[in-house]
Amino acid sequence: MKEELLKTARNLACVIGRRIHLVIPSILAGGETFMARVAVTGADAMPMDYFPNVFYFEGCVGVEGLPAKFRLDPGKFAGEVGPLKAVGCEAGTAVIRARIETPDVPDVSAVVSSNPAWVFKNPAYRLFWGDIHVHTKYSNCSPWRCQDPQWCYQYAQEVSMLDFVAPADHLRGIASDKLRWPRLQELARQHNQPGKFVTFLAFESSHAQGFGGDNNVYYLDDDAPYFWVDRDDMRGIAPKVHVRDLWRQTDMSGKAYFTVPHHTGRAAKYRSWDEDYYDSAREPLFEIYSSWGSSEMRHSRLPMSGGNNDAPSYFVDALKAGARFGVIASSDDHATLPGSVFHFRVDPFGVSMLNGFAHKGLAAVRSPELTRKSLFESMRRRNVYATTHARSLVDLRIGDANMGQEMPADRSLRAKREVRVRFTPENAASAKVILMRNGEPLDSKSLRGPNLAAEVNEAVFEDADDLGKIAIRGAKFHPEPFVVYYARIEDSNGAHQWTSPIWIDED
After folding, report:
1. Residue 143's pLDDT band (cuts 50, 70, 90)
2. Which single residue of 224, 239, 264, 309 has CA 20 to 30 Å from 217?
3. Quick one: pLDDT at residue 110?
4. Who wins on pLDDT, 17 or 478?
5. What is the DSSP string of 227-293?
């Protein structure tokens, strides 16, 4: 009896509290060969070194070449399956599913799914996933859990299986040791592998309320300088140094860069969009979600940790003020676990419901290729969207305009707009699509069904209100009349996605 109990306990220990990451490329060409990647982490989000369970591939869609079963090599937390081939050529999907059992505990069984992929005859773009707001021990915060920057790169590539990453440490930590910035530059250079894994040199610049709030800086090159003003309050969490000073000094470096404001909705230090600074050339993106919560709007299902402010400081307020941002999410992780889900789970191998925002956020970038320059330019063009954690597939279109783009109003658009949202959720049986117009909810559609996560679903909205009557006029940062649309998707697992907006400009 004792031996049976020990065996049962060991099998259960291999199941409960574990998470299996099963990842495939998000955009595939029909007939393209690829590898599926697998990694197993424990309840603490750290790699497992013992997972003897067998993967039985069943119920897969759009994929050829899978073996009947698969097992990780002894002592390994990760492995690859393949080469596999994508089946289909136009508006199809691919999903890998695996049943996992513990032989000595017949009641413990689960099915895990990969992220979905869209399969096209000739893909117009590829989709890459990253976390570009990660803190390491160089931030001088959370020293009991932050790791070395080297760990950030290894975890992102080998455990979370991201396509790109950026440690964005606090300036006060970087400046505390003259050896830190040169090492961050060198690590970004060493780990950048075009076509396989991309790195960005970055830092977080904190500014007091009224001076710009918190912003991250991302460079195209890995030999750029960090920002610093030699004064005592720069060593604190809210220096009264304006974000304009950050831009001026960074401009002088001659290096290509952009800045991204984040958690603007928090109760303490925040950035309000009734203030007189915004620069479309220098700040193309808005970090709409992180482990802090959502800065989309004042009241949401993802409130800010520590409370929300009552100022016009949210993404919807920025849109109404005429700012033109694409949206990303990232973790703002203070445990150096980029792309992780740091939370105890209830269901075997699964991702738990959102609770305390353990799901930290990912940036989705649509780009021709996985290189630093290509991703950098795609982010500058706002060809991006945001998600809490799931690698769900999302597309927003109005006519020929894609998310992140601007389009002039013609006669037909003035009379009526058809907004199309295509999506495939990751492993969810239902989802709600909310269409936002001028920062306010306009309409919503709910979809559900057993095949939702294996199909290209579409929600079509028609806005027949006269464009001239609904246009925003006299906005602080864009006084000419315009209308702006974006979509938010909420699925049955608690995951959210936000598209970058589309703007329609009146002549």
Report:
1. confident
2. 309
3. 81
4. 478
5. P---SGGGGSSS-S--HHHHHHHHHHTT--EEEEEB-TTBSSS---TTSS---TTT--EEEEEETTE
